[in-house]
Write a structure and sequence with these properties.
By secondary structure, this protein is of the alpha+beta class. The chain is built from nine helices and 13 strands. Helix 7 packs parallel to helix 9. The mean pLDDT is 94. The structure holds fe (ii) ion.
Length: 287
């Protein structure tokens, strides 16, 4: 079970739900979960309905480095492995052990499919535009606090479900919410210059002007919670709305599902709308 060290100077956005409560009121449980997610809470889902062969997955490891860091589930399919880059992944992970590869690929496909089905079932009204699942088998340490952002200017909702598939805890730090960061760092990040820009520009600006210098010259100085996610733990977190850092970890699976924001329970909670409101409020104070 996740072990949370709360920092009293950072808002507590953790919500723990137990999937065993789902059977009492399936519809109500799902609605509450989706509301919490849209609100930007960090949801920890106890007794989540995923059976994962950790022994098998923990036989596979990949070297550090961008090339191997984050791999789509499809990377491990044979058709992909005929291409040069995935072939390197194959060699690094499995050597000549073809049987291990076949068992591993089956497990990756099965768990990836479970995550897609789970998201379709739980976030029932959502219209998914893309359901990408990514896997990590590289050791990661203290990557630095940041907020995620899309490369393109896209006003999309984003469903992120994480499972620690390692036998060791995965450690995250979590600091202020995106809106709180906008309020605190409006001037420092020059957000007035991007106040009509899409949210990705604002997130990128916060990373460049606030997080990157802090991570480089004064790491660890921003208040943050520490969370140790145990092996098999499942959590959901909108990583644009919650500043975060992988502090330590090795094997993980995560969804990066794009959703049409008009299908949200409350489209006003989508990131672009929240950023606009936060910029207007912070800009009004700054003037
Ligand atoms: Fe991130």
């Amino acid at each position: 079970m996740a072990d949370i060290e709360l920092n009293p100077r950072v808002a507590d956005r953790f919500v723990v739900l137990d999937w065993r409560d789902e059977k009492d009121d399936p519809e109500g449980f799902r609605t509450a979960l989706v509301h919490h997610y849209e609100a930007g809470d960090v949801l920890i889902l106890r007794n989540a309905p995923f059976e994962i062969d950790l022994d098998l997955l923990n036989r596979v490891s990949l070297p550090s480095g961008k090339q191997f860091q984050k791999l789509a589930d499809t990377t491990f399919r044979l058709t992909s492995l005929c291409r040069a880059d995935p072939r390197k992944v194959f060699r690094a992970a499995f050597g000549n052990d073809v049987l291990l590869y076949l068992r591993f690929r089956r497990e990756v496909d099965r768990v990836s499919a479970c995550l897609r089905d789970f998201a379709r079932d739980v976030f029932r009204p959502y219209r998914y535009l893309k359901q990408g699942v990514s896997w990590r088998f590289t050791k990661t340490t203290q990557e630095g606090l940041h907020v995620d952002y899309f490369r393109k200017d896209e006003d999309l909702h984003y469903v992120r479900i994480f499972i620690n598939v390692d036998k060791q805890p995965r450690v995250w730090t979590l600091s202020h919410s995106l809106e709180e960061l906008i309020r605190r760092h409006y001037d420092q990040a020059g957000l007035g210059e991007v106040r009509h820009a899409p949210s990705n520009k604002v997130c990128s600006r916060l990373n460049k002007r606030v997080f990157d210098p802090m991570n480089k010259f004064a790491p660890g100085t921003m208040d943050r919670h520490f969370v140790h996610f145990a092996p098999g733990d499942v959590w959901l977190c909108e990583t644009r709305l919650n500043s975060h850092e992988i502090y330590a970890g090795h094997r993980m699976v995560a969804t990066g599902f794009y959703v049409d924001p008009t299908s949200m329970l409350n489209p006003a909670e989508r990131v672009d709308a929240r950023v606009q409101r936060a910029l207007e409020a912070a800009g009004g104070i700054a003037r």
